[in-house]
Amino acid sequence: MGMFAGNTTSALAMQSQDHVAHVYSILAMVILPTLHNARSGMQHVPYFPLVAIALIPLATYALTTVRFQYALRVNKNRKSKNLIIPVVPYWIPFLGHGIPMVIDSGAYVAKLTERFGTDTPISIRVGKLKFTLITNSEHIQSMFKNSRLLTNKPVTIHVLDHLLGASQKVLSFYEADDSGMASKSRVGSKVRSEDRVYYFQLRTAHKYLSGQHLHALNERFMATLGRDLETTDISTDWVEYPDLYRFLQLMITHSSIETVFGTKLLELNPTFVEDFWEFETNAPQFLHAMPRWLIPSAFRVRDKLIKSFMRWHAYANSHYTISETNPDESDWEPNFGSRLIRMRQDGLLKMEVMDAEACASEDLGLMFGLNANVLPCIFWYIVEALRRPSLLVDLQADVANSISPVTGKIDLDKLAGQPLTQSMHAEILRLYIAIFTLRHGETGPVQFSGYQLGTEQLALIYSRTGALDEEAWVRSGRDLKTPLEQFDAERFLVGPDHPLWVESVEEKRPGEDATGSCGDRQFSMEGLTGVWVPFGGGDRMCPGRHYAKTEMTVTLALLFNKFDLELTTMDTSAVQPNLKFAPFGALPPTCALPFRIRRKAAPAN
Predict the structure, then answer these.
(1) I want to staple 437 with a disulfide (CB 3.0 to 4.6 A). Which of 130, 461, 474, 550 is the partner?
(2) Helix, strand, or coil (residue 240)
(3) Out of the domains of life, which is the source (predicted)?
């Protein structure tokens, strides 16, 4: 096999050289006579340097095209061992595919997927950066099986630098952490246990966004949002608003921030919610590394948010003493809010590099992660329900079936397990999240499906690729009654006659269910690993996904329990997901959506 591959390689290499020579001969035959004629009349025009410059992109594209085809042929002969990741042809040396990736990386990746398919990963060059675009669901599964060997350090540092404005000493601190993600530091690492920032961030999030702490957080959010909805000045008379998204931003974000961060942050900074969403709107510009002089107002509002966090930290630390070991410490108190925030603050302050500004930047990043993605999803959750009155009735029936006869309150675990509610949630994330998952080998190359991801390469997985890949969905055993480009609340439901139906479903933790049944419908995620990836995958899957699901389902349940809502425009087709925010997460709407609302005279129980 090795000899056969070697002979094939030599033959293809000779073919490649002949092809390049042929390309240059054509260029010479076309251009040189033209130059000769032109020079006879214009002796002083420097044509040859201009033509030489013009030849560079042509030659580059010819060479990279030959190299691309060569890799495909070699892979065809090697079958499944030592496969080459072909580099997509490009025109400009060094810059590579930089221009389309900077202008609209999500659209460019989608275009490449449409052009080259999903059978093989392909490589994209952006200056010194090398991205490996992985679009095949089986390849993605193979990659995530090696998640313990992978890291997202380059992405983290980019976000810290450009989105959160971290100082150079903080960036160097993150760069220096080579201790790994296990409970014990990697052999050879000299990082202090207190300075294992990646492990600390992930461990803290997993611990305090799961189990009993997650339950307490969920109950707190439901109570806080319920109180805020009850005290709003909306009466039993219809009142019209011009923008549903803006309405939800101001209402839901206040409740969410108080739930996680406590009451004092908002009390000390009255315009905090408005400031945060102005900052969030400029996230794509920040992440594209635009300088301050191009977006001065965006930098000003970020500076204001950092100062707001610093003001709050100073106040909270002077009024509350954090203790991780105190068994009597409650899950929530007004100064710092949840245990998650207190334990983060306690750990960050033990790191010498984390001064007041650095801690503020860290909490801005956490708030961005907790709010920037969930709010657009809540919006689409409500809009899709309002567009389909029968769907809204069914979702409200799920809520009614989840109310405890003892307490009269919503049983969140029961609501989270309702098949239609689960399918609705999964479909919203499938269609309205567009995010890159980026990983690279932490200590060496990583093998996946016969390919090798080098340490200098970043694996790139785009959530919308699998979300809209008809072949992958058919392979997973799904019936595409509705095109993948359209919304279908029942897409993840199967009936008793479906091959994915499970006769006996063991009770699983809410939010983790691969299946969940009720009557003649069953929620199922079977076969969709590597296809449905709105949270990434592997060990670094988003730890806040369970709390985000609660925010979505509880918001719809409480909002429609207390109010009547109607869209005031008959045609909502203009309201589309804004792909300008791809590939950075959830997609807000492209335009305002007017609606009207009134309080119900007798709220349903």
Answers:
(1) 461
(2) strand
(3) Eukaryota
